[in-house]
Design goal:
250 residues, alpha+beta, outer membrane lipoprotein receptor (LolB), chain A, seven-stranded antiparallel beta sheet, 14 strands, Deoxyribose-phosphate aldolase, DUF6503
Length: 250
C-alpha cells in the first residue's frame, strides 16, 4: 500500500510539473539550443573577436547590452559603441556629433547584425521574438527541428519584418543551418551552413558558409529545397578570429 501511495504521489507531482511548463514546443527547443551552445555563459561574459579586419567587443544580458567595433580607416581610429543608451561614434577619441539619423541607423544596424549572429542562438529569447515550430526535417541524412522566428513591431527594431529559419539537431540541439530574409539595403535572402566550430569559455562559436539563391525574392521557406538541390551559390564565408571570452564580474 505504501508503494502504491508513493507511486501515485510521483505521478501527481510529475503531472503538476508538466502543467506548470507553459512553454511552446518552439520555446523548449530554443531553450535547449541556447543551453547546448553555452547557456548562462552568454550573459555572464564579455566576448572579443575579429571579423573582416574589424575588432568587436560584445556582451548581452536580459536587461543590458553593449556592442563595440573598432577599426582604422582614412579618418583615423574609429570606435562605434551601441548600447541601451544609443549609438556613439568617436574618431581618434573625439565624439562625432555631425552624424545624420540615416548614418546612425546604418552604423547601428551593421554593428547589431554582427553581434546578433555571433551570439546565436542566445538572442532568440528576446522579448520581441516570436517562435513557431515547423516540425521535423532532414538535411544530409541528419534529423532537425525546424523553428521559424519573426519579430513583433514593438521592440523588434528596424529589422522586425525579417524572417528567420533555424535548423536545430534533433538529438544535440546544435544549430547547424539557418536561413533568413531581410529588407534593408535592397533586401534578399540567405542561408548559412556551419563550416567550423570553436569553443571558448564555455561558448560555442560557429563559422559559416554564406549562401544565396539566384532570385533575391525567394521565400525563406524555399531555401532548404534549393540547398538540397544544389541551387545555392556561395557568396562569402563568415569567420570569427582571435576569440576571447572574459567572465563579467557579478
Amino acid at each position: 500500500m505504501e508503494n502504491v501511495l508513493k507511486y501515485t504521489f510521483f505521478l501527481a507531482f510529475a503531472a503538476l510539473l508538466a502543467s506548470c511548463d507553459q512553454r511552446t514546443e518552439a520555446e523548449k527547443i530554443v531553450d535547449a539550443a541556447i543551453e547546448a551552445h553555452g547557456g548562462k555563459a552568454f550573459e555572464t561574459s564579455k566576448i572579443d573577436f575579429d571579423f573582416r579586419n574589424i575588432h568587436y567587443t560584445i556582451y548581452k544580458t536580459p536587461t543590458a547590452y553593449e556592442y563595440i567595433r573598432e577599426f582604422t580607416d582614412s579618418t583615423g581610429t574609429v570606435k562605434d559603441v551601441l548600447n541601451n543608451a544609443g549609438f556613439v561614434r568617436t574618431v581618434n577619441g573625439t565624439k562625432i556629433d555631425t552624424l545624420t539619423e540615416e548614418r546612425i541607423g546604418a552604423f547601428s544596424r551593421s554593428v547589431n547584425s554582427v553581434a546578433y549572429f555571433a551570439f546565436l542562438p542566445y538572442g532568440l529569447n528576446d522579448a520581441a521574438a516570436v517562435k513557431t515550430y515547423l516540425g521535423e526535417t532532414e538535411l544530409k541524412g541528419e534529423k532537425y527541428h525546424l523553428v521559424k522566428v519573426t519579430f513583433q513591431p514593438e521592440g523588434g527594431g528596424e529589422h522586425y519584418e525579417d524572417e528567420f529559419l533555424y535548423w536545430f539537431g534533433k538529438d544535440d540541439y546544435l544549430m547547424d543551418y539557418m536561413a533568413y530574409s531581410y529588407h534593408t539595403d535592397g533586401g534578399g535572402v540567405r542561408m548559412r551552413e556551419v563550416s567550423g566550430v570553436t569553443e571558448v569559455g564555455g561558448i560555442r562559436f560557429q563559422n559559416y558558409l554564406n549562401l544565396k539563391p539566384d532570385d533575391k525574392n525567394t521565400p525563406v521557406e524555399k531555401m532548404q529545397d534549393l540547398y538540397i538541390s544544389g541551387k545555392l551559390e556561395k557568396l562569402s564565408e563568415i569567420i570569427l578570429e582571435n576569440i576571447r571570452v572574459e567572465p563579467l564580474s557579478k
